[in-house]
TrEMBL record, chains A, B:
Name of protein: Histidinol dehydrogenase
Positions annotated to bind Zn(2+): Q258, H261, D360, H419
Gene Ontology CC annotation, any one: cytosol
Signal peptide: none
Keyword annotations from UniProtKB, A to Z: Amino-acid biosynthesis, Histidine biosynthesis, Metal-binding, NAD, Oxidoreductase, Zinc
Entries under NCBIfam families matching the protein: hisD
UniProt source species: Prosthecodimorpha staleyi
Keyword NAD carried by entry: yes
Annotated positions binding substrate: S236, Q258, H261, H327, D360, E414, H419
Pathway stated in the Swiss-Prot or TrEMBL entry: Amino-acid biosynthesis; L-histidine biosynthesis; L-histidine from 5-phospho-alpha-D-ribose 1-diphosphate: step 9/9
Enzyme nomenclature, EC number: 1.1.1.23
Primary gene name: hisD
PANTHER family xref list: HISTIDINE BIOSYNTHESIS TRIFUNCTIONAL PROTEIN, HISTIDINOL DEHYDROGENASE HDH
Amino acid sequence: MAIRLDITDPDFEARFAAFLATKREVSEEVDDAVRAILADVRQRGDAALVDLSRRFDRVELEGRLRITAEEVDRAIAAVDSATLDALTFARDRIRAHHERQKPADDRYTDALGVELGARWTAVEAVGLYVPGGTASYPSSVLMNAVPAAVAGVPRIVMVVPTPDDRLNPLVLAAARLGGVQEIYRVGGAQAVAALAYGTQTIRPVAKIVGPGNAFVAAAKRRVFGTVGIDMIAGPSEVLVIADAGNDPDWLAADLLAQAEHDTAAQAILITDASDLADAVEAAVTRQLARLPRGETAGASWRDFGAVIVVRSLDETVALADRIAAEHLELAVADPEALALRIRNAGAVFLGRHTPEVIGDYVGGSNHVLPTARSARFSSGLGVLDFMKRTSILKVGPEALRALGPAAIALARAEGLDAHARSVAIRLNL
Amino acid sequence: MAIRLDITDPDFEARFAAFLATKREVSEEVDDAVRAILADVRQRGDAALVDLSRRFDRVELEGRLRITAEEVDRAIAAVDSATLDALTFARDRIRAHHERQKPADDRYTDALGVELGARWTAVEAVGLYVPGGTASYPSSVLMNAVPAAVAGVPRIVMVVPTPDDRLNPLVLAAARLGGVQEIYRVGGAQAVAALAYGTQTIRPVAKIVGPGNAFVAAAKRRVFGTVGIDMIAGPSEVLVIADAGNDPDWLAADLLAQAEHDTAAQAILITDASDLADAVEAAVTRQLARLPRGETAGASWRDFGAVIVVRSLDETVALADRIAAEHLELAVADPEALALRIRNAGAVFLGRHTPEVIGDYVGGSNHVLPTARSARFSSGLGVLDFMKRTSILKVGPEALRALGPAAIALARAEGLDAHARSVAIRLNL
């Protein structure tokens, strides 16, 4: 059973703080292994990829690292048309939403005649890591590939392990729909190394995104600097804030949708109605019994779930900001007003008819969102993650006379005489 | 002497690739020491800060960790008015430019009646690390603090070590001008730990920015996740692309302004005029002789400088994209046309009268820029680094009927039945 807290408990603050500090992930010590793998791929290239895939994925990749367009065609042909339609529907909605995120360049001349500006350009090549096995989600392929395509990335590469030579055809369909142009059947730290350093077959990229296991996460941390990386995603979480006017079964279903992801996932309910809290707890227990992934969801709810009862919805604001949830559902009568008062959340789902699951698939917004309280300082994945801004400065002789003396004064105050000279020489000072 | 390459050399590609791969930093092995310092501060708080500052900075901080407003007042009174005016001028220009970076929220209803949007909010608290000693630059204080203030960060904290109890008064003046509200006289990994975990005196922040030595960089890497961090800055670099119509002395001054920063700094000239290349090399040698920081600049130019001669300016585009310079000066007749063709640069300085130094101080754009080829995938510091985006989704009963079936189909295809159920239960499916 999830923990139950009441804000009127004398030890509430201590228990809430302890709850916030709970670590949900056991950090595996894989760094030494990863270092060796990166060095091996860097030195031996394709040969290392083939050897490592034989060892870790029990698959022979000699001469077939790349997944051909014909293989993708065949995979798509094998997908039933209803699912393909749903995937296409999702792709179109994600694309339409992300088109709005494209940043505008800026250019202007200020009162002193100085021209300033900013120019956004797409990253030249991006690598998308896709996990194999059960965590191989076609929806995540879309969520990573579509923003890159919208950003205008000219080369989008995907890597995906094929343990025992098996691969979910939906993942290949999503790659095609998402605009991926090259796909390689390699995973783990070795795939990250190939994307960062390049091999005979795989040209290097400038940025690597996408979720992965502890090996992949450690490899991404290690190659950061050589290439850019996205955030390191932790287990998923939802915070549901609900008033008395909710169907407990709906809320229980939402909490369990989060909990079924992973035993380390987290589902939290905060409500000002303690009767509702009781009813949701009972509904969770009922629904768990008939859930195919009930064992996973049950462990998540037992170990990391929480039900918090407050006196008024006002009190939820500070708690929500401290939790800084990846997903925040506001199942209350006036969700807009509450949303405006909360600073920290990856995504907010407004009202009783907006289950978080809609955002996972077809809402159009991105489902790659900051976990583990990182919504305090970071955002979900978007078009900006695949672009970068170059600042522009243009000064003519006149404007340089206006700016120069202050630049020279500051350079001298910082003891940087060559800096001062670079300006002074142009002004005959 | 800097290396000299000519694009017509038969071994040009190999030599250019080797030049690009040159490491300019010796990575110090400080990680074990940093881990111990972080643990000590986390456990003992202020007492650890006092002990560590006594040991590393030879300063007694018991009861005086915080720098008071009166101390800042006194420091500002001690700064000469011309320098203070220059600093204020710089602050105003940086603020005006960064105001333009503030992102707009978005909210719209699509054809299916789904409401989507994005809301930008400031990070709740930011810590700014400022190095002590000779690398303690007031201009950098402004470049970090002003974008945070423009973003609307409600709490901006600065930490700065005061070795032997000495502190540059200009740094305190810049902090006041930049909108910093709390200042603590502590540095090193211990200051990063205090900002990330909090102590009795220093409340934790959500994001840490600013340059520092190897200890600070290692500490920032380690606390990443608990808090956000900015990029890890490497040694500075400039690429000057110049045609024949330049004064070699101006270009030499620009190259040396970069080189004087640090023996690991890098200055590169690419030109289509080999006579100019010769003349610039001679001018660098001449100017070096009378430069106060000539020893530093000379070592940088000797070890990491480069002069590359090409046949035409067209050939500079691909080379510039591979170098992906932090600073790119285009001292050519038509800098606008060339700038549009180059994808990778942190900042571009257009024309013969825009020395990079203007951008260091008073241009208005930010001087915290991606180094070590990371302009391929990242941008200079700006207002967005102090904000985060929450995505918004709002679906009514009608729109849910339109979206629901596709979400259910995808959830089932991914084997996530509780996901499917969370939508289906609202549609009586």
